Amino acid sequence: MKKIRQDYKGISLMLVIIIILSLMLQGCGGNIEPEDLTKIKVTRIEDSQENSDDTTTDEDKSKDTNDSSGDEKTSDGDTTKKGDTTKDSDTTKDGDTTKDSGTSSKGDDTSGKTDTTKEPVSQNITTPVPTPAPTPAPTPAPTPAPTQAQTPTPDPINIANVLAPGTAVSSKNGFTIDYSNASDGYIMIKSDGAFTGSIYVQVKQNDKSGTMLCQELYENAGSYMSLTLTNGSGTYCIRIMQDASNTGKVTEKNAVTFNVNIKSETSPYIYPCKNANFTSSSNAVRIAYEQCAGISSNKDKVTKIANYIYSKLSYNYDLAGQINGGSLSSYTPNADKALSNGKGICSDYACLFAVMLRSMRIPTKIAYGYVANGAYHAWNYVYYDGKWNLYDLTYTDDGGKLSSSYSPKYIY
Q1: pLDDT digits (tens, 9 = 90+) for 264-314
Q2: CB neighbours of 297 closer than 8 A, spacing ≥ 6?
Q3: Burial letters for 70-108: b for 16+ Cβ neighbours within 10 Å, e otherwise?
Q4: What are the pLDDT digits (tens) for 312-323?
Q5: d(Cα 245, Cα 197) in Å, to the nearest integer?
Q6: Are strands 251-260 and 234-243 parallel, antiparallel or unpaired?
Q7: Which of 23, 179, 211, 341 could lock 205 by a disulfide, CB 3.0 to 4.6 Å apart?
Q8: Whole-number average pLDDT of the chain
Q9: Kind of pairing, strands 343-344 and 387-391?
């Protein structure tokens, strides 16, 4: 009996260890069914009995048999023979243990017992829902700046310059006549130095006895002055006359007669001349190009410049009174001066109009003569649309009307 008790203690200790291992395996996901433990327990008892047969008495054997048979009942109430354990129609022999996989060989449960197998515990792990990034506020489209009309860029200033190349020249008594570019419609006059009295330049048709086309006062000693050949192709006579004592008595200082074929009827009227003098640096020229920036039609340019002059000039009654009263014997108009003063007489209107248009190579004549009321006057003729068009900015300023008749005496 002492031996048997020792065996039971050993078996109990082993069962405790197995249960602990089972619990540990279940915590790690393992699964040992209680029936498996029973098989192990029974098998171990049988082994112990076999080992103790030689040392026990018949009474002890009988008692052990009763004790062990009471322990050998299966969990479903069926009794097994010694050394055998039946589970779900599967039989173990000679102490072998068959572990039930939880499914009968026929595909259904015929044992009628309650399945004590623990299913794996499903852990309710809440997957954190990622916090959506905040939707950025839409960037407002930039408010476009108000569209401003762009000011057109003026064309580069490109005036028709007068030249004195010296290929056709008459020099005498300190005065030079250069008619090298007579075919373009102009000649150049210059004194070699200072002179006394007054110098007049006459442009005549044919010869010295021919019709006087113009007579101009030469004022700037040592500088060239240009005069326009206004009678078209033909023969011209150019004379330089000096009134040394300003008494009205003149003497000829130089003269030349030549025949010329002028390129066109409009070519003489795009160049600077005595009564419409300008250079590329003239203020009136700059303004003309600015005013006509982006305009392609010559007619539209003419209208633009006329309206500009209307807005800038007013009639100078004081100056007109000085000329008419004789206190001012001569007057040469100046375009830049008229713009600076903001006023002028008829010759200033005509001069400024011619300078601004000629600088853009729009042919423009200056006419001096008489109008319907008999007054001596100055006006313009501008060439566009294939013809010459009359403009009188003095009369039409402030909404005035043209004279009923115009009789030109001199053309420049």
Answers
A1: 999 999 999 999 999 999 999 999 999 999 999 999 999 999 999 999 999
A2: none
A3: eebebeeeeebeebbbbbbeeebeebeeeebeeeeeeee
A4: 999 999 999 999
A5: 5
A6: antiparallel
A7: 211
A8: 80
A9: unpaired
At 219, the amino acid letter reads: E
Which residues are paired to 73 by β-bridges? Answer: 79
Mean pLDDT of the 184-197 span: 96
Q: What are phi and psi of 156, to 5 degrees?
A: -60, 140
Task: Return contacts of 141-149, CB within 8 angstroms, 24+ apart.
Answer: none
Measured CA to CA, the distance from residue 59 to residue 331 in angstroms comes to 170
Q: How far apart are CA 186 and CA 216, in angstroms?
A: 14
- Please check whether residue 152 is in contact with residue 142, taking contact to mean a CB–CB distance below 8 angstroms: no
As a whole number of angstroms, the distance between CA 305 and CA 192 comes to 38
3 state SS for the chain:
CHHHHHHHHHHHHHHHHHHHHHHHHHHCCCCCCHHHHHHHHHHHHHHHHHHHCCCCCHHHHHHHHHHHHHHCECCCCCECCCCCEEECCEEECCCCCCCCCCCCCCCCCCCCCCCCCCCCCCCCCCCCCCCCCCCCCCCCCCCCCCCCCCCCCCCCCCCCCCCCCCCCEEEECCEEEECCCHHHCEEEEEECCCCCCEEEEEEEECCCCCCEEEEEEECCCCCCEEEECCCCCEEEEEEEEEECCCCCCCEEEEEEEEEECCCCCCHHHHCCECCECCCCCCHHHHHHHHHCCCCCCHHHHHHHHHHHHHHHCEECHHHHHHHHHCCCCCCCCCHHHHHHHCEECHHHHHHHHHHHHHCCCCCEEEEEEEECCCCEEEEEEEEECCEEEEECHHHHHHHCCCCCCEEEEEEC
Question: Contact 275/351 with Cβ under 8 angstroms?
Answer: yes
Nearest partner of 223 among 272, 259, 188, judged by Cα: 188
Asked if 213 contacts 230 with a C-beta cutoff of 8 angstroms, the reply is: yes
pTM above 0.70, yes or no: no
Instruction: Classify residue 398 as left (phi > 0), alpha (psi -120 to 50) or beta.
Output: left
The rounded Cα 39 to chain-centroid distance in angstroms is: 93
CA contacts within 13 A on the Cβ side of 186: 23
